[in-house]
Amino acid sequence: MKRFLFKKALLIIVLFAANSLFTANAQKVDSLIAYTNGTKICETAYWKVGKNYHAETWFSKNINGKACLTTYGSKSFQIDWDLTVYGYLHEVGLYDLNTPVDAINPNAKSKYKHTFSNITGAGGYTGLYGWFGKAGSPESIELYINENWVGNKSIDMSSCKKMGTISIDGGTYDIYTRQRNGNKFAQWWSNRTSPRTQGTISYAKHFQEWRKLGFPDINLTRLTYAFECTWGFPTGGSLKYNYFKIDKP
């Protein structure tokens, strides 16, 4: 009888905890599933991961298909997707930063190891992602440091201007920018010329090189590991970050 009462009480605690997690973290979540070793989300949401990180799932308005992010504590995550049109961007990392670009620790870096599997169609690209300024505002800047890409479509930089090439962390990166256009925010990119699946990204050095090319004095507000699918094309597959770590700036 005591064992039965203990199991019943434990079940009530688990259900209450799962319900509290859903209520506290969901912005618009239709399918939040709490696993023993991970949390899987397949709708727009934002939630805390471990002590230092947050995760976010974002979808285009006319997406047709499914793309889920599963977080496993603060060291690994997985993205699984199957789309027929339009796109999404899922990310895990540091939010709520407010560090001036010139005040970032010059030795700040991140580390990672990831694997792709079962890729079909257009694919997409992964690496460091984030924002300077208030994300999405006309004055903000969206940042990419791409380490790897998959699929039958290359990263389309046709709307961007190539600013130069730099050598960091044993590889070369092409730098691109798309300047602000009306209410549309600007973008800066470092695209690695030879893709890799693990390594170190000395992100502070990228920002230092960008500054030499005219990047403005603005505060870093977000820095994550992300995957963005190639927009407007069918694609499917899985991406597993077996390990990741991002130094605070």
Could you name the key traits of this structure?
249 residues; mainly beta; Jelly Rolls; 10-stranded mixed beta sheet; 7-stranded antiparallel beta sheet; 2 helices; disordered N terminus
Summarize the structure.
14% of the residues lie in helices and 51% in strands. With 249 residues, it is mostly beta strands.
Q: Can you tell me the CATH architecture?
A: Sandwich
CATH class: Mainly Beta
CATH superfamily: Glycoside hydrolase family 11/12, catalytic domain
Q: What is the CA–CA distance across the termini?
A: 55 Å
What are the segments in which pLDDT stays under 50 over at least 5 consecutive residues?
A: 1-36
Question: What is the element string, with H for helices and E for strands?
Answer: HEEEEEEEEEEEEEEEHEE
Overall strand count: 17
How many whole angstroms does the radius of gyration measure?
Answer: 19 Å
Q: Find the structural class using helix and strand composition.
A: mainly beta
| Average residue-wise pLDDT | 87
Overall geometry = globular
Tell me the number of structural domains.
1
Helix proportion: 10-25%
Output the number of helix runs: 2
What fold name goes in the CATH topology slot? Answer: Jelly Rolls
- In what range is the share of β-strand residues? over 45%
Largest sheet: 10 strands, mixed
Would you kindly provide a written description of the structure presented here, covering whatever features stand out?
It is a single chain. This protein is mostly beta strands and 249 residues long. It has one domain (31-246): Sandwich (Jelly Rolls), CATH 2.60.120.180. 14% of the residues lie in helices and 51% in strands. The chain contains 2 helices and 17 strands. It has helices spanning 2-25, 203-212, and strands at residues 32-34, 39-41, 45-49, 53-59, 64-72, 76-85, 88-94, 99-100, 110-121, 124-132, 141-150, 161-168, 171-178, 186-192, 198-201, 219-229, 235-246. Strands 3, 4, 7, 8, 10, 11, 12, 13, 14 and 16 form a 10-stranded mixed sheet that branches. The chain is globular. Mean pLDDT is 87; it is low at 1-36.
